[in-house]
Design goal:
Elements (H helix, E strand, L loop, with lengths): L1 H20 L3 E3 L2 H25 L1 H6 L3 H17 L3 E3 L2 H23 L1
Length: 113
């Protein structure tokens, strides 16, 4: 239970950090980030997983870049579903997906040590 709560808080912090770095990626506050982290997680674990399986050959062909496109689309969908979280363009979603992946990688590395 503790690790789930820690992952949730880190995901919310990641979204806030991405909103600070990427123009067009807006999170209105920490509560909105907490809600958005839940929505992003649910969208990625359901629809995102299905899309990644279906587009696996395209992901291989593009050397993983299409994976970022799918993540950007999932961020746009999550922004549509959660109040206080807005992604204003596909470019913001794409760069937000890149930065979010890097921030999550760093946070996970820090937690594992």
């Amino acid at each position: 239970m503790r690790s789930v709560l820690l992952n949730w808080l880190l995901s919310a912090a990641s979204l806030l950090l991405v909103a600070y770095v990427v123009p067009g990626f807006v999170v209105s506050g920490f509560l909105a980030a907490l809600l958005a982290a839940v929505v992003v997680g649910l969208v990625n674990s359901t629809l995102g997983a299905i899309l990644k399986v279906l587009t696996f050959p395209l992901i291989i062909l593009t050397l993983g870049i299409f994976w970022l496109v799918i993540n950007a689309l999932m961020l746009e969908l999550a922004s549509w579903l959660s109040p206080g979280f807005e992604v204003q363009s596909f470019g913001a979603a794409f760069f937000g997906a890149v930065v979010l992946a890097l921030v999550n990688l760093v946070f996970r590395h820090l937690i594992s040590e």
